[in-house]
What we know:
The protein has a single domain (12-125), classed as HIT family, subunit A (2-Layer Sandwich). The chain has two helices and five strands; from the N terminus they run βββαββα. The chain has helices at 55-66, 113-125; strands at 12-15, 19-23, 33-37, 71-74, 90-94. The protein has a five-stranded antiparallel beta sheet, with helices on one face. A hairpin with a 3-residue loop joins strand 1 (12-15) and strand 2.
Amino acid sequence: MFSIAGEIPCMKIFESDKTLAFLDIGPLSKGHALVIPKYHGAKLADIPDEQLTEILPTLKKLVAATGATEYNILQNNGIMAHQQVNHVHFHMIPKPNETEGLGIVWPATTGDMDKLKKLCEDIKSKM
């Protein structure tokens, strides 16, 4: 547990006006940490762009500071997507070997190229 207001203690690694980074209390591997925007929003789309400017640079510094050479950056949105905390957060999970870190089973699929082209055009038109 953590609290941006400081009511719940955390193993703080970095803090600025916009961003907080701290160790995960249920780590999947040594160095597993969270980086969060201080602006509250449940999902990524809820956070204004200007409140996200430090997230990737902080994750990059965290990777270097932990010495991780293989790692996952993970951010979930919504219960069905495995989000358990109702505040945007990014995990940096070192993957030092086959047993530690994040385990992912990625189902192999082959897309229909005509459907993918149509989908691509639809998404591009809304950007």
